Amino acid sequence: MHHPAANALSSSDRGSGPYIKRFGRLERILHLMIIVSFFGLVMTGLPLLFLNEPWAHFLVRMHGGIGTAAIIHRCCAVITFTYAFLHFASLIWKFAHAEDKKEFFTGPNSMIPKAKDGKDMAQMFRYFFGRAPMPKFERYSYLEKFDYWAVTWGTTVIGGTGLLLWFPEFFSRFFPGWIFNVAIIIHGLEALLALVFKFTIHFFNGQLRPDKFPLDLVIFTGRATHQYIEEEHPLEYERLKREGRLAEKEVAPPPRWLYMFAATIGLSAIAIGLTLAVLVIWAIFR
Predict the structure, then answer these.
(1) Exposed, middle or buried by CB within 10 Å (0-12, 13-18, 19+), for 85?
(2) Helix (H) or strand (E) holding 268
(3) CATH of residue 231
(4) Is residue 145 part of a domain?
């Protein structure tokens, strides 16, 4: 049975059941790995960019000193490379088993931007000023695709420069010394950009905008109500209904332990993330 507490927090539980499966186990695990690694990297790497700030000293002490923070930072980097590898491997597997290879890139389950995404973005801006209705989204909106490619870009750039700095002796065989100075700058600035983006725009789009507030736990529980799917992704809902596949996607409500775990992770991430974003912005502009 659906538990009443869900309606008080997660927008993915709005309305009544039945629930529809939206994300599989691997997608949910990978997202959790992203959260753990990202927060670990931010909280151990951020003090190096703001050495004169008292809160940076607090973060270093909280992690047991610079040496321990460096170890944690590298462990989180390993988690980052692991989830990137698992995701890339899953894409290869899906492509190899796809019945329609073209649809793999152009179909509704693809994260590749399409012309409709540009039109949706333009329509959304007009919607903000009351000049157009809100655009209708398929399985993934342009907002979700932007998040996806932001993570892909950030992981590539930050991960690549991080490897250079982690193993300078090895890479110095192939690159001139000035490359490492550039890597330090790019690594720090890209990490700072990722932090500000994740803790402001991503949090607002995914959790804090009025129709999501205070949480949207669908990426943790992997399921959402019919009403949620119909309102957030109406074109996907209509397609599944037209294809007669809604019933086969129906699942049980999230168990209480999963819901409470997801809510704890979500609320903690928002609290810590917004606090760090405020401290960083304050340190930059004061």
Answers:
(1) exposed
(2) helix 256-285
(3) 1.20.950.20
(4) yes
pLDDT of residue 69: 94
**CA pair distance 64, 274, nearest whole angstrom:** 23
Mean pLDDT across the chain:
91
| Domain-embedded: residue 1 | no
The C-alpha atoms of residue 1 and residue 7 are separated, in whole angstroms, by: 13
Report how many domains make up the chain. Answer: 1
Segments forming the whole domain that contains residue 79: 22-285
User: Residue 48: inside a domain, yes or no?
Assistant: yes
Confidence of residue 156 (pLDDT cuts 50, 70, 90): very high
| Of the candidates 121, 90, 118, 135, the residue with the CA atom closest to the CA atom of residue 231 | 135
Peptide bond into 135 cis (omega under 30): no
Tokens representing 137? 């989204």
**Helices H / strands E in the chain, number of each:** 13, 3
The proportion of the chain whose per-residue pLDDT surpasses 90, expressed as a percent, equals 79
